[in-house]
Amino acid sequence: MTTHIFGDHADLSFQVAKLIAQQIKAKPDSVICFASGESPLLAYNLLVTLLKSEQIDSGKFTLIGLDEWIDIGPENPGSCAYFLRTHLIDPLKLSADQYKLFNALAEDLNQECATMDKFIQEKDGLDLIIVGVGMNGHIGFNEPGVSQHLYSHVIALDETTKTVGQKYFTGKTQLSKGITLGSQYVREAKKAVLMASGERKATIIRETLEGEITTKVPATMMRELENGHVMIDRNAASMLKSE
Fold it and tell me: Is residue 238 part of a domain?
């Protein structure tokens, strides 16, 4: 694993956007998994600008959605699907066969997981995965204590996740389960990037980079990965001993 510390959120976001753009330029048919949420928002907006300004062909890469709230439809502004459509899929005018998102309304969620796994397998795996880190150390909806060797799966959400997740919705929303790519995808991706910014992430970044490697803090797995890159800003790094 390599740690990269940038001056502020804007610089971090630009560097992540540049990394993704370079991946698409180098391998136009790349398979890239994108997290949703506040951490990567600016990076995605900058990515769209970069791809267009540098005339990088975005018509061949495949976008994979990292996770979704169970029982939340794609038309809900708080859904991960809505986020990815708004900030990447629609601005880049991706064709329907260029992206794969979880259907969190599917009658058979286990089959939905199997379908996602088959889709990724047929694409020969992930070239790049972009994830954030939750306040409890989760990656995607891989919550504390869950096996780090799962592929796509359904999981009961941690109380912290349910509480923090309310910020994405306009009113009180019942959140109980999630569907997510498992941590094994992070392990197997050709490149895995965890990004975090701001002082509120400083404690969990300290645990991630300097605490015990444990399933109780899923993000600590990044330290076991040769393909792992932790990209953070100065505020998120403020509690590190090395800082």
Answer: no
